Amino acid sequence: MKGKFITFEGCEGSGKSTHVTLFREYLDKNGIDYVFLREPGGTEISEKIRKIILDIENKEMTDQAEALLYAAARAQLIGEKILPAINSGKLVVVDRYVDSSFAYQAYARGLGIDFVKKINSFAIENCMPDCTVFLDISPRVAFERKGGADKDDRLELSGIEFHERVYNGYLKLIESEPNRFVVIDPTGTKQETHEKIVNALKKVL
Ligand code: TYD
């Protein structure tokens, strides 16, 4: 039997990393076996591509090249890790996946959904998550909670308008695929949000 595939998405500062960690702890505590990966990265080659993409020195990188590098890192991750794990019946949890490319590259960078879908359909060959958790918080509120941008990260320097476009992009994706997304309001306590996530994901575990 094929394993399940869960992804986590959200804007910068949405608490995604915290909740990915809490969800992994939940899986560990309950003896649920899983493979955890993050994007961009997750394999030796994909981590090398990640360094190129996120390097603040790479100011000349075109939006098209950036989108293709994300897709390349993803293609490697799918071929080397995600598909083998799913095909051997394992649960796969990934921190960011193709929805990040739709939200960031297609909507926020303005490359358009058709172009980004096209390059990714080549990279992912229908390997879509069973369920995607989206932490629904506007970037303005998220940035206040986080206390500003991380200066070592090229993408976090892109400004609040960019992140607003990312957020609006996610909302469009959710509208077009309401059944795949689990939309979670993360403005309660950490524990409350965690419980909401676990309850929502029980249907796929
Ligand atoms: P990371 O430090 O992992 O961010 P986070 O903790 O927010 O997940 O950096 C990943 C960055 O890459 C993040 O700003 C989102 C961006 N990204 C894209 O623009 N497109 C993509 O396809 C992916 C996977 C990530």
Explain the layout of strands and helices.
Layout: E1 5-10, H1 16-29, E2 34-38, H2 44-54, H3 63-87, E3 91-95, H4 98-108, H5 113-124, E4 131-135, H6 139-146, H7 160-176, E5 181-184, H8 190-201
Parallel strand pairs: 1-3, 1-4, 2-3, 4-5
Helix pairs in contact: 1-8, 2-3, 3-5, 4-5, 4-7
The structure holds thymidine-5'-diphosphate (TYD).
**How would you state the average pLDDT, rounded?**
94
Counting helices, strands and paired strands, the structural category is alpha/beta
Please give the CATH architecture.
Answer: 3-Layer(aba) Sandwich
Strand element count? 5
| Number of structural units classed as domains | 1
Distance between the termini: 14 Å
Read across the widest sheet, the strand sequence of neighbours is 2-3-1-4-5
Bound molecules: thymidine-5'-diphosphate
| CATH level-3 fold name | Rossmann fold
Largest sheet features? 5 strands, parallel
Q: Work out the helicity level.
A: 40-55%
Low-confidence stretches: none
- Determine the CATH superfamily: P-loop containing nucleotide triphosphate hydrolases
Specify Rg, calculated over alpha carbons: 16 Å
The run of helices and strands is EHEHHEHHEHHEH
- Please identify the top-level CATH class: Alpha Beta
Overall 3D form: globular
Number of helices: 8
Strand content: 5-15%
